[in-house]
Amino acid sequence: MSTAPALPGRRLSARLPRWLIVLGILWPIVLVATQVTAYLVSPPDRDMGHLQKIMYVHVPAAWNSFIAFFIVAVCSLLYLWKREARHDLLAASAAESGVVLTALTLMLGSIWGRPTWGVWWTWDARLTSTAVLLLIFVSYLALRSFVDDPDRRATWSAAVGVLGALNVPIVYMSVKWWRTLHQPQSSPSTVDPAYALGLRINAIAFLLMLIWFTGMRYRAALLERAADDAAERLALGGPATGEVAHA
Amino acid sequence: MPDEMRFVFAAYAVTWIVILGWSGYAWRTWRRARTLFVESHVDEEVGQ
Fold first, then answer.
1. What is the ipTM of this complex?
2. DSSP string of chain A?
3. Is any Cβ of chain B less than 8 angstroms from the Cβ of A29?
4. pTM (predicted TM-score)
């Protein structure tokens, strides 16, 4: 019988950590404030008019999906090296966040593309590579739900996580490497100063949201794993660990 | 209202629908995991 990768031997509380509670209150307030600020301070673009305002959600969603997949890659490598379940669980939590943000990026890009390009979708290098990235990480999550053995699930998904994250630089550079309909990367240094502030503050608000979502899913995963371990110990008649603090 | 504003509103509406749906999912799954965790450890203590 295969054993689950060991959780670190520290006390696990059923309560949410205080920083996660504070962040859960903070990020929606910050996100509303930054969206309203960006909307009010940015003038209409010369070519796109008010459509430019979609940038404040589309670009932060894309950037933060890259950050999420970077976390997946780092945690996957750490898991393959140290074989600690917490790295596997954090990678899975970040992958979920990355999938949601990538799907949001594609939906927002489609809404932006219709009035500017005249189409909802085109097989442009940036769009296609982003869709491939989404498919890879949807497959990553599907793989995790299909494999029951925790060791195999963690090892296989770590391999897919590392390989999948290799697509992130391809997505980022696609607008330089190929002739694309998509404009070059937007960053505070490439957009008009009138738009840079809105872009920066919304990117930070999205980052706070990413940390909260990933933290919530990670806590849930830790508790589920601890519950599974306890059920297994009980079934085997083994000793209680005493490493649990009840809320 | 300029025609382009419909697309801007649609983009922000989609963003908040996704965010709120995702928040609800994160909250529900954490609550479920917390219940499982507490019950399993109560069982474990009873089992001892």
1. 0.87
2. -PPPPPPPSS-EESSPPHHHHHHHHHHHHHHHHHHHHHHHHPPPBTTTBGGGGGHHHHHHHHHHHHHHHHHHHHHHHHHHHH--HHHHHHHHHHHHHHHHHHHHHHHHHHHHHHHHHS-S----HHHHHHHHHHHHHHHHHHHHHH---HHHHHHHHHHHHHHHHTHHHHHHHHHHHS--SSPSPP-TTTS-HHHHHHHHHHHHHHHHHHHHHHHHHHHHHHHHHHHHHHHHHHHHT------EE--
3. no
4. 0.89
